[in-house]
Amino acid sequence: MRFTSSRTLKAGIAAAALAAGLAGTSLADSANLDQFSAEELLPLALKEGSVTVFSLSSRIAKVEAAFEKAYPGIDMIGVDLSSVKQIARVTAEQDAGVYAVDVLYMADTPVAFKELYQAGRVHNYVPPRIAAELDAKFQAPLLQHRLSTKVLMYNEAAYPNGAPISNLWQLTTPDWEGRVLMVDPMQRGELLDLLTEIALHPDEMAAAYEKQFGKKIEVDSDLNGAGEQYIRDLFANDLILVSNSDALNKAVGDKTLKEAPVAFGTYSDRRDNEEEGWALQIANDVEPANGILFPAVLAIADKAPHPAAARLAIDFMFGDDSANGGAAFAPFNVPGDYATRKSIADDPDSVPLDRLKAWTIDPEKTAAARGRIADLIITLQ
Amino acid sequence: MTSLVAAFHHRSGRALLAPLLLLAMVAVLVVAPLLKILVATLSPEGLAAWNTVLASPLSMNLWWKPLGTTLILGVGVAFGCLLMGGFLAWLVILTDLPGRKFIGVLSTLPFMIPSFATALAWGTLFRNSRLGGSAGFFEVNGISIPDWLAWGLAPTLIVLIAHYYSLAYTIIAAALSSVGADLIESAHMAGASRKRIFVGIILPVVTPALVSAASLTFAGAVANFAAPALLGLPVRMQTLSTRLFGMIETGQNERGFVLALLLIIVAASFLWASDRLVSGRRAFTTVTGKGGRTKRFGLGPWRWPLAILAVAIGIGTTILPVIVLAASSLAPQSGALFSNWNLHFWLGEAGGQIAQGQAGIFRNPVLIEAMWNTMRLGLTVALLTVAMGLLLAHTIVKRKGTLIANLLSQLCFTPLLVPSIAFAAAYIALFGAPLGPLPSLYGTFTLLVIAAAAHNLPFAVQSGRSVLGQISNDLEEAARLTGAGALRRMAVIVFPLAIRGVLAGAILVFVKMVRDLSLVVLLFSATSPVLSMVAYRYASEGFMQFANAITLLILVICLAAALLSQALQARVQKWKQP
C-alpha cells in the first residue's frame, strides 16, 4: 500500500522488461504453470516479486495484508476499480501494448465475457488445489470465486408474518403500483442482468402468470415470451428507479415504516440492518424465482507480467481448508453472499444456497440476450 | 479563412508562430483524444450505434427526450447562475453592502461542495413519500410536498443553480473588480444616473465574463450526473449525462461515445451562438494600469435588506449542505441524520461496534498519505493548467475574430463535455505506448497531470479570458516598444493585472481536481490513493458517513486554498491597497 509513484514507475519498467523477456516462451510456460501446485509456484513467484490485482471490492486491502503475511517477499498491489473501469482500463492498456495487470477480480461477467474473455484479453485458470471442490459450472468459462445476489427484498418489521409477495406477477398488480423499487437497470449492469434472466425464462414466467391470474398469458406481438411481457408490465406499474442501493435500502428497509415498498436489492445488505435501523429480509418463496445469483470471477490477464505470482494469488484467494476459509477468504465471507468452494460454510443466518430460489446467471447466455433487453428497457423508460 | 490571411498580413509570420504552437499543443491534448473517441464510433458497431441513437424506435427515449431535458437544464441553470452570481458579485464588489467580505467568501463555497451533497440536502428537506423510507423535514411537519417539487426537473434545476452559481460569481466578480474607478468616476462627474452607469459602462465591460460564466455553467449543468440521477430517476427523468453514464456502465460503449459526441456538438453550437451574440458589440478594454480603488455604490436604505438576502442565499446553498454532510459524518444511522451523534467516523478506534469495526478516518494511515497526494496533484495540475490557460486566453483575446482564435476557443471548451472514463481511456491509448523518442507514460504521475490539465483546461481558459479581455493593448504595446520580450511582458504586465482571474481559475481547477474521481481512478496505477479515491472506497462499501467526512475534509482544503489565493492577490495588486 505504500508505493510512491516513482517506485511504481520502476516496478512498471521492470515488469515491462520482464514481460518482453518472457514473451517468446510465455505460452508454453503458462500451460505448465496451470498445473503447478502452490509450492511449485512459490519460488517462481518470489523471483517475480510482485503481483498486481484489480479488484471490484476495496476488501482487496485485507487480502493484500493476508497475502503478504503468508508469502513474505511477494508484494501484492491491490487496485480498487469497478468492473466497468477494469474492462475499460485493460482494453485501453492492452491496445497500447501495456501489460501491467496480472489478476482481475470482477463481476459484470456478461460484459467481461464478451469484451475480455472472447477477445482473448484474459484467460481462465483453475488452481489444481481446489478444482475438486468446485462444481464444473463454477470452473468455466471463467473461474467463479463467490456468488452475489439481486433478489426481492422486503421489510420484515412492516410484514412480520413473512414476505408479502409469493409470485413475481403480484408486482404488476394495482396493489403494488408505485411500490416496487429498483436501481436503474440502465445504470447498473447487475439489474439489467436480472431482467435479462427473467426474459430468458419465458415458460416459467408464463406458468407463474397462470398461477397468479388463473388464465393464460397474452404476450404483445412485438415481444418474445412471458418474461419480456413481465418487464413491460412491471415498468407500466410505475416501477420506481433510484440511482444507488443506499437510497433503495433506506426506502424499503426503514424499520419504522408501516406500508413499506419492496425492492430488487442485494441480500448481503441485510448485514447492515442493526447498524442502520433497517429490517431488510429476503422474500425467498417467490414463483418462479426471486431474482438472480451472479458470480464474481477471477481471471489472469493476457501476457500477465507475473504469471506465477498471479496464479499463486488466485489460489490464495480461495482460502484454506477451514470452514470460513481463513484470513484469505474471510474478507469476502459475508452473510448473503455464497462461496463457490464447497468446504466454506454458508452463514447460519442466511438461506442455504441450495434452498435459495434464485436463478444463477449464465454469463454467455446473458451476454447474448442482454442487448435486446436493454433496448426494450430504453423504450419503457 | 480571410481572417486568417488578414492576421497574416497584419503581423509578421513570426508572430503567428506562437499561436500555431499553442494550436498544436491543444491538438495533442484535446483533439487527439476526441478523434480517438470519434474513430471508435466509426466501426461497424459504432455506425450501428449512430443509427440506434438517431434513427430508430429507441431514439425518442435515448436521445430526443434526454436532449430536451438537458437543454432545459443547461439554459435554465446558465440563466439562473448569471442572475444569482451576477447579483452577488455586483453587491460584493461594487456596493457598500455590510459584511461583503463574508458574503464574498460564502459565495465561492457552493462550487466546492459536491453537487450530490446539495441534492441530498434537498432530499432531507423536500423528500416525499413516493420512495418510501423516512419523509423529509416538510412532510414530517405536516406540509405535503407534491412530486414535482420533490423529484424531477424543478428540484434538479434548483440544486444545480445552487451548486453552479458560485462558478458564475467567481468569474464575474473577477471581472467586476477590474472595472476602473476612473470610468465610473468620470461618468458620475458627467452626471450619469446609476442605472445609466450600470447599463452603459459596467454591463458592457463585464460582458465577456458573463459569456464565460454562462458557457461554463451551461456545460457544467449539461454534464452533471449526480443531481439528475438522485433527483430525476425516481420519476424516470433522464438527461444525456445519465443516459451516457448508463450506456458505458452497461457495456454499450459505442452508444455512450455517440451520445458524448452529440452532446459536444450541441454544447459547442450553443457556445458559438452566444459568442456570435456578443461579438457584434465592440470589445472594451478598461484596464489601463492607472485604475485606482473603485468607488462603491451607496445602497442607501437597501443596504441591510440586500445584505440579509445575500446571506440567506449563502446559508441556503452553503451552510445547509455542509450541515447535512457534517450531520451524516456524525450520525451512526444514515437514515436518522440528527440523532445519536458521535465522533466515531472521525476519530473512533478500530474494532468497535460501529461501522463493522472500522476505525475513524483520522486513524486511517492511508488518509494522511492521501491528503499529501491530493495536494500535490491538485497544486501541480492547477499551476500547469493555469499557465496553459493564460497563454491560450491571451492568444484568443488578442486575436479575437480570427480563425485561430475561434478554433482555440472552441477546442479549449470541449473537454468539459467528454465523459472522464472515455477521456482517460483515450489517454491510455494515446500515451500508453512509447511515442517516437518519448517513453511510455503509462502509470506515471506525468500522464495523470497531463490528462487532468487537459480535462480542466476550460476552467482556466474561460476565467482567464474574461479578465484578459479588459486589459488594454496599449500597455503591452508600450512595453514592446521599450524592447520587452513576450515572456517578460507576460510576467510583468499581463500576469499582475489578470491575477484575480488567474487565481480564480486556479482555484476552480484545484477544486475540480481534489474532488473529481473518475479521471484519477483510471489513470492512477499506484496504490497510494488520493482523497476522492478513499471517499469512493468508503462509499462503495456503504459507509456514507466516512465518505461524507472526507468530503468535508476536501471542502476545508478547498476553502483554505481559496483564502490563500485572496491573500496572494492582495499582495500582488499592491496598487489597489488603500
Automatic annotation (TrEMBL), chain A:
Q: Mind telling me which SUPFAM superfamilies this protein's record contains?
A: Periplasmic binding protein-like II (SSF53850)
- The organism's superkingdom is given as Bacteria
Q: Which residues form the signal peptide?
A: 1-28
Instruction: Could you list this entry's UniProt keywords, alphabetically sorted.
Output: Signal
Q: What is this protein called?
A: Iron(III) transport system substrate-binding protein
Q: Look up and give the organism this protein is from.
A: Dongia mobilis
UniProtKB/TrEMBL annotation, chain B:
Signal sequence, start to end: none
Describe the location of the ABC transmembrane type-1 domain by residue ranges.
Answer: 67-274, 371-565
How does the record classify its membrane topology? Multi-pass membrane protein
What are the GO BP annotations of this UniProt entry?
Answer: transmembrane transport
The record lists the membrane-crossing segments as: 15-35, 70-95, 102-122, 148-176, 197-227, 256-273, 306-331, 377-397, 404-429, 490-511, 517-539, 546-568
Key word Membrane present? yes
Primary location class:
membrane
Q: Output the Pfam families linked to this UniProt entry.
A: BPD_transp_1 (PF00528)
User: Where is it found, in Gene Ontology cellular component terms?
Assistant: plasma membrane
Kindly state which keywords UniProt assigns to this record, in alphabetical order. Cell inner membrane, Cell membrane, Membrane, Transmembrane, Transmembrane helix, Transport
Sorted alphabetically, which InterPro entries does this protein's record hold? MetI-like, MetI-like_sf
Compartments, record wording: Cell inner membrane; Cell membrane
Per the record, the similarity remark reads:
Belongs to the binding-protein-dependent transport system permease family.
- The name of this protein is Iron(III) transport system permease protein
